[in-house]
Write a structure and sequence with these properties.
- With 162 residues, this protein is α+β, with helices and mostly antiparallel strands.
- It has 4 helices and 5 strands.
- The strands form 2 sheets. Strands 2-1-3 form a 3-stranded antiparallel sheet. A two-stranded antiparallel sheet has the order 4-5.
- β4 and β5 form a beta hairpin.
- The chain starts with 29 loop residues before the first strand and ends with a helix.
- It comes from Holothuria leucospilota (Black long sea cucumber).
- This is GIY-YIG domain-containing protein.
């Protein structure tokens, strides 16, 4: 049986200033891989991220990291923005949703949301500020992570013995 992807949330954007909505009515969508393109002095840098919550909440966290110095190192994007701010460089950020995918599934025991983010980061056409670090999926229960690590370690040990 094929798992169906849940439909994106269709609640309209509830921004007080409709013209300020960066995703034209799609800010309240959850389970998305998104892209931020930072344009400054004819240079474009891209950042790929994900959120299991609504994009609106993730955007608010990014904006906090852009304005409050104590959060400046929260993400690679915020580090880049602070470098631009400290050098008095004008910049503009354009946001877009790249994919809408479900997060961790007990059936498949994998997180499509994290896998899709890694896919977009690794695309050859995306040379940006996202650092491609392999990190543990925050959506997978810890017991599944331990089992997967043990299985991976066992497979490596078997190859070394051959």
């Amino acid at each position: 049986m094929k798992a169906q992807m849940p439909a994106p949330e269709t609640n309209p954007c509830n921004s007080r200033k409709e013209n300020d909505c960066p995703l034209v009515g799609k800010r309240r969508t959850a389970n998305v891989v998104y892209q931020a393109t930072v344009k400054s002095n004819d240079i474009e840098e891209t950042y790929v991220g994900l959120t299991e919550n609504t994009f609106k909440l993730r955007l608010a966290n990014h904006q906090q990291a852009f304005t409050k110095e104590k959060h400046r190192n929260q993400t690679e994007l915020s580090k880049h923005v602070w470098i631009l701010k400290n050098s008095n460089t004008d910049f503009k950020i354009h946001w877009k949703i790249l994919a809408h995918v479900p997060s961790y599934s007990n059936v498949s025991q994998r997180c499509n949301l994290c896998m899709m983010e890694k896919f977009y980061i690794k695309l050859p056409s995306r040379d940006g500020v996202s650092k491609s670090k392999i990190r543990v999926c925050q959506h997978v229960p810890i017991c599944v992570q331990i089992q997967t690590h043990k299985l991976y370690r066992r497979n490596l040990d078997n190859r070394e013995q051959s």
